[in-house]
Amino acid sequence: MKSHMIKMAAILLVSTAFVTGCGKKKVDALPPAAQGTDYGQNATDPNAGTGQIIPGSQEDFLQQVGQFGDRILFETDRFNVDAEDQAVLQRQAQWLAQYPNTRVIVEGHADERGTRDYNLALGERRANSAKNYLTSIGVDASRIQTVSYGKERPSALGSDEQSWTQNRRAVTVTVR
Predict the structure, then answer these.
(1) Residue 136 counted as domain residue
(2) How far is CA 22 from the centre of its chain?
(3) pLDDT by residue (tens digit) across 140-163?
């Protein structure tokens, strides 16, 4: 029993020495930004730091369609596009007509209630409803991808009706 305790103490001592010997490495350069995003602009970008919005970018999209013009909201367990949602999607389609080389991803989301699988399926139906409406008013379907995040990416934290309302949504995000 005593030799077992001595072995355990020795292992603990060696592992502690090993861990403390591993210091943090200094990062000389960050990895490049993901392709097709506006993230990680650096000083070589002529518009970086100038406050100018790049035409066709996500920032331009948000400026043109309005603060919450990138999203439509849904009722509980629903995925239908109502008249208010149609107006939002029509503004999005008008913006997309100005930038025919810009593609978008429509993200489907759900509130926290329900199972993970149910909410992923519901998010997919919501994203596809938005995509189908956009294509019905003239946006080429090949420019639109869909993805469902279910309840995994809430917009509002909380377990109340106000939070749930904000989380039941489809959000349009530009891709370069």
Answers:
(1) yes
(2) 35
(3) 999 999 999 999 999 999 999 999
In a domain, 22, yes or no: no
d(CA 63, CA 67): 7
Q: Which residues pair with 150 in a beta bridge?
A: 109
Query: Distance (Å, rounded) from C-alpha 111 to C-alpha 78?
Result: 12
Residue 13 has pLDDT above 60, yes or no: yes
Q: Which domain holds residue 135?
A: 66-154+164-175
Q: What is the pLDDT of residues 69-83, one digit of tens each?
A: 999 999 999 999 999
Region for residue 76 given its phi and psi (left: phi exceeds 0; alpha: psi -120 to 50; beta: otherwise): beta
Q: Domain tally for the chain?
A: 1
Residue 139 within any structural domain of the chain: yes
- CA max distance for the chain: 79
Question: What pTM was estimated for this model as a whole?
Answer: 0.71
